[in-house]
Amino acid sequence: MKKGSWMYLIIVLAVLGLVGLNASGVQAKKVGGGDITYTPKGAGPVTFSHEAHKMKCNECHTKIFKMKKGNFKMSKEDHGKETACGVCHNGKKAFAQTSEADCAKCHKK
Ligand code: HEC
Ligand code: HEC
Ligand code: HEC
Question: Taking residues 59-77, what's their average pLDDT?
Answer without folding.
Answer: 97
